[in-house]
Write a structure and sequence with these properties.
Blueprint (H helix, E strand, L loop, with lengths): L5 E2 L4 E4 L6 H10 L2 E5 L2 H7 L6 E4 L6 H6 L5 E3 L7 H8 E2 L3 E4 L6 H13 L5 E4 L3 E5 L3 E5 L5 E6 L3 E6 L9 E2 L6 E5 L4 E6 L4 E6 L3 H9 L1
Amino acid sequence: MTAPILQSRKNITLLGGGAVAKEDLLMALRLAPVLVAADGGADTALAFRRMPEAVIGDFDSISAAGQAAIPAERLHRIPDQETTDFDKCLAALRAPLILGLGFLGARLDHELAALAGLLRASATRCVLIGAADIAFLVPPRLSLRLEVGMRLSLFPFGPVRGESRGLEWPIDGLELVPGGRIGTSNRVTAPQVALKTDAPRMVAIMPRAALGAVAAALAG
């Protein structure tokens, strides 16, 4: 494994190239105060008068003005065209948790690529934040304190089995697979939800109201 570009004891906010509202960035920074930009996300950071600790990517979308405004030692160009900027960032960062903004919404192909990136970097705890939802890869074991009635969708990106407690429709004994049985539109029935999976292939999709609980559980 190559040495990380940035290693932090604090959570990292990773800013992608998609549209991001200033209030969403401020919300993320309260939970993850170290700011990193993925390529063109640097221009968004600068527009909000925030200087990223590092900019990582192939630099095909960051502006020339953005590159000039950021100290050279914070610019980390990785010309590899086989991976996305999101992949490059997850491979280059070490932190208890990464919160990703600007990766969900807008173009569906980019959104799917980001979700697939979560699987490729399964050892990295990362939550993607969209306009209405959050998404993250379910670790082998996860315990969450959630509001009863909250939506908790589970989408498999490959064959995966698991166990659940606190969900209206348990997944015990089921094989979830993209072209077969999936677990979307499940609901929380108890304040404590527990999930176990036998492979890092399940993405949870939940309302943004769950961000605090999810961040605390994943970073802990």
